[in-house]
Amino acid sequence: MGESTEEIIASIMDKIPEIEGIILFDTDGNALVSQTITQMRHAEIAKNAAVIIDAAKKLSQSIEKGDASVTYVESENGFTVVAFSGKKGLLAITGKDATNSLGLIMRNLKLALSKIK
Q1: DSSP 26
Q2: Could you report the per-residue pLDDT of 62-112, keeping only the tens digit for each?
Q3: Which CATH architecture has domain 5-115?
Q4: Confidence (pTM)
Q5: Are residues 89 and 50 in contact, defined by beta-carbon separation less than 8 angstroms?
Q6: What are the extents of the domains in the chain?
Q7: Do the Cβ atoms of 53 and 89 come closer than 8 Å?
């Protein structure tokens, strides 16, 4: 028997302590599973992440570089990393201390998506 979605998300947060939260969402912007260390508006975050996915896919198509799979936003106080595949996406929220871990975070989100049915 495989890991549950909740276990997969918890495992990523355990491996990478810079992650403050992870949200699994669908491309319609619905938060499906979420775990954050502080109170956040998961539904609003999921809706905004779905918009980012749509824009990233359109950009990737317009520059003829194939399908987009990961994007990130650098903010004043941290990063938001979004990996997506099919009809689902995983979003990780981090602080500025995650600068050196962004590649690892992207890799783990993509691997997790491949495990989530």
Answers
A1: E
A2: 999 999 999 999 999 999 999 999 999 999 999 999 999 999 999 999 999
A3: 2-Layer Sandwich (3.30)
A4: 0.91
A5: yes
A6: 5-115
A7: yes
The one-letter code for the residue type at 106 is M
Torsion angles phi and psi, residue 2, rounded to 5: -80, 175
pLDDT of residue 1: 55
Residue 94's nearest CA partner among 110, 109, 81 is 81
Q: What is the largest CA-CA distance in the chain?
A: 42
H helix runs in the chain, sequence order: 5-15, 42-62, 102-115
Using one digit for the tens of pLDDT, what is the confidence trace for 18-56?
Answer: 999 999 999 999 999 999 888 899 999 999 999 999 999
The phi, psi pair for 18, rounded to 5°, reads -70, -15
- What the block records as the tokens of 50 is 């779905």
**Which residues sit opposite 94 in a β-bridge?**
19, 79
